[in-house]
Specification:
Rossmann fold, five-stranded antiparallel sheet
Length: about 350
């Protein structure tokens, strides 16, 4: 799913009718974790979730009221209700949700976030909440990265910046932290919610055939930035694969040599033949890629393994780092099932890495 803050920018011409709800704190068993967000307009939920069910219904009601009142609030919901009460959640925990009714105030911040992500520069969105009552809070937002510092009081920035640097270096896009800070001799204290925002992981699909096309669609759904490479323009085009963010029509091996191989890049090789597979795989061996996977039968993989090791193109250890045959074993038979098995493995590796 496209980053929810970028979705706000897509609708900035009418953002006065948008409300953002964000889970800020949880305790016990809850349907969502801190950082989960949902965007609402006058008709209801547009995108995202704060947990679904009863909680989301209550949050939606508050969001619709906030669209009219323009009042932001920070609410707590108790999910530890008696099972006989069919109208209430019974997860057994508590969840705090921040409802922001004034997104227009921070469009420039979201634009800074968007510009950073487009340049593949990670950062942290800082949400400063000063509470008066549960139904009335003051919200300020700031974007910070390794190369950009916001206009935030120095007394706060000095305490926040080390945490931000730790979050960025940690590389975990699910990292969400809460700080309570006070400027000496000033009241009240403020809550600071820090949300790591990283560029989408890159999925490079070598091969625009049936599996590559289906995998591109799944990769887009799973929030990868998708690039498809093939030397056949009749396959590698936006009409055939509309979900791809980038399409490269070029010799596959040469294209993979040219592409940056970073630790948030996932390569899946699903070309139409043994020769193209080898050409695609060679530039990936020994790189910093997060994932290298290649489709193939047992006989083909055994033959390629022997060839790569005998020719010095890969060590035994380097070959063992390649996921081949790519995909989780779900007894897949159809093109769609094969693509699902590969997508599932990509998610497993990405989530394990995080």
């Amino acid at each position: 799913m496209k980053n929810i803050y970028l979705q706000i920018l897509d609708q900035k011409s009418d953002s006065s009718h948008l409300v953002l709800a964000t889970v800020t704190r949880t305790h016990g068993s809850t349907p969502q974790k801190p950082g989960s967000s949902a965007l609402f307009d006058k008709k209801g939920l547009i995108s995202g979730t704060v947990g679904g069910g009863v909680v989301e219904g209550k949050v939606q009601k508050l969001a619709l009221e906030a669209i009219l009142s323009k009042k932001s609030g920070h609410f707590q919901f108790n999910l530890a209700n008696d099972i006989s009460n069919t109208e209430e959640a019974i997860c057994g925990g508590q969840i705090n949700v921040l409802i922001d009714a004034n997104l227009n105030n921070y469009l420039s911040v979201f634009e800074q976030l968007g510009s950073s992500i487009e340049s593949r520069i990670p950062g942290v969105l800082i949400t400063m909440v000063t509470g008066f009552t549960e139904e009335t809070v003051l919200i300020n937002r700031y974007w910070i990265s390794n190369i950009f510092k916001p206009a935030i009081p120095e007394a706060f920035l000095a305490q926040i910046e080390p945490v931000v640097l730790n979050m960025i270096s940690g590389g975990n896009p699910s990292d969400y932290r809460e700080l309570e800070l006070t400027i000496p001799d000033e009241e009240p204290s403020s809550l600071f919610f820090l949300e790591a925002v990283f560029p989408a992981a890159q999925l490079i699909i070598a091969g625009a055939g049936h599996i590559g096309k289906t995998l591109a669609r799944l990769g887009d759904m799973l929030d990868f930035e998708v690039t498809v490479i093939d030397d056949r323009s009749e396959y590698a085009n936006s009409e055939n694969i509309p979900e791809a963010n980038h399409i490269i029509v070029k010799d596959i091996g040469e294209a993979l040599k040219d592409l940056k191989k970073e630790n948030d890049t996932y390569v899946v090789i699903v070309t139409r033949g043994h020769k193209d597979d080898a050409a695609a795989l060679k530039p990936c061996i020994g790189s910093e890629l997060a994932f290298t996977g290649m489709i193939g039968s047992k006989n083909k993989i055994a033959s390629m393994r022997a060839s790569f090791i005998e020719n010095g193109w890969a060590s035994v250890k380097q070959w063992e780092a390649v996921h081949t045959p790519v995909g989780l074993d779900i007894k897949s038979r159809t093109v769609e099932e094969i693509a699902v098995s590969i997508a599932a493995q990509l998610v497993l590796v990405r989530n394990s890495k995080n």
